[in-house]
Amino acid sequence: MPIRSATAIAHPNIALIKYWGNLDDEWTIPSANSLSMTLGELFTKIHLIADEQLECDLLMIDGALAPPAAQARVSQFLDYVRVYSGKALFCRIESSSNFPRGSGIASSAAAFAALALASAKVFGLPTDPQELSRLARLGSGSACRSIYGGFVEWIGGQDHQSSYAIPIAPPQHWALVDCVCVISTAHKSVSSREGHRLAKTSPLQPCRVQSAPQRLEICRRAILERDFEQLAQVVELDSNLMHSVMMTSQPPLFYWQAETFVVMEEVRRWRSEGEAVCYTIDAGPNVHVLTLAECAQKIQDRLSHLSGVQEVIVAPVGGPAVFVEDEKPA
Ligand code: DP6
């Protein structure tokens, strides 16, 4: 009897070398390679049930019916799965996460990585990591990196076949920790998806894209050699460059708030005093502060005392997306 349901979990990831802008928006083929660290302890679980009685897909998030935009995005992803598998089945998708939405931790990466696993199993598509990475990318670009644990590179490629992520070092390679400073949980006014489309309107984007391979190589070397100072320099530079592109797009995107800048300044000051810390910021005001595991408690304490920081969520390096036992019968 064919499998009718599957459950999978995946972790979010934080980009150390950012993905911002596509060669091809429809197929999510990025303008440059990117590199991330998978975040452990935080996860999204997807339970997917294919149901012949359904006339459309139904997405539930934390037990409640998801808003129309989220429904449409998941349905669009499942359209690819239906085309590839040749099976015209609609699904009920139950999603739950153990980290707050709007916390500055990209929930779409974990959700679409887990959805790629669950849907591949239910629809009989290949479940090797490279194929899952390609599939996850169709849901959310950064999701292709969350298929793997540890430190991961997304090979941008030129088309669907050549665009997927690969692991560059396992989770245990280097005990880094991400202390996520939550400054605002308000829903971002411009989505990453829209931001990627706007990237090409910035006069700075060609320069950022052209110099990205060099930064990625420095970052890769810093990780492989566990060189925190090198990592800090290149991670902050890459984040600043992405935000420079955002701020000079038309219309401009300003994701930072005053408190964002306060955290950046403090982190730079602590590093100048000898602490192993650096910042990186995604498409929102919250600041990801990277440090070494042995310093994490001290850095978390310091960050939580800064004015404007509502909460500090701490995540070590995490593992790959995995299948878990179904909790409910299909
Ligand atoms: C700033 O992967 O969220 O976090 O493909 O539209 O889902 P979509 O975009 P998404 O963009 C991530 C942007 C970023 C940088 C990164 O994670 O590399």
Describe the protein's architecture and organization.
With 330 residues, the chain is an alpha+beta fold. It folds into 2 domains: 4-173, 2-Layer Sandwich (Ribosomal Protein S5, domain 2); 176-316, Alpha-Beta Plaits (2-Layer Sandwich), CATH 3.30.70.890. Helices cover 35% and strands 24% of the residues. It has helices at 68-85, 107-123, 129-139, 192-198, 205-224, 228-247, 258-272, 296-304; strands at 5-10, 13-17, 22-24, 29-30, 34-38, 44-50, 58-61, 64-65, 91-97, 151-155, 164-169, 176-182, 277-280, 287-292, 311-316, 322-324. The strands form 4 sheets. The protein has a 6-stranded mixed sheet, with helices on one face. Strands 2-5-10-11 form a 4-stranded antiparallel sheet. A 4-stranded antiparallel sheet has the order 13-14-12-15. Strand 13 and strand 14 form a beta hairpin. The model has no long low-confidence stretch (mean pLDDT 95).
Q: What sequence of helices (H) and strands (E) makes up the elements?
A: EEEEEEEEHEHHEEEHHHHEEHEE
Q: Give the name of the CATH architecture of the largest domain.
A: 2-Layer Sandwich
- The secondary structure category is alpha+beta
Q: Beta fraction of the residues?
A: 15-25%
Residue windows where pLDDT falls under 50 for at least 5 positions: none
Radius of gyration: 19 Å
Q: What share of residues is helical? A: 25-40%
Task: Quote the average pLDDT.
Answer: 95
CATH top level label of the largest domain: Alpha Beta
Instruction: Record the strand order, biggest sheet.
Output: 8-7-9-6-1-16
The N- and C-terminal alpha carbons lie at a distance of 12 Å
CATH fold-level name of the largest domain: Ribosomal Protein S5, domain 2
Overall spatial form: globular
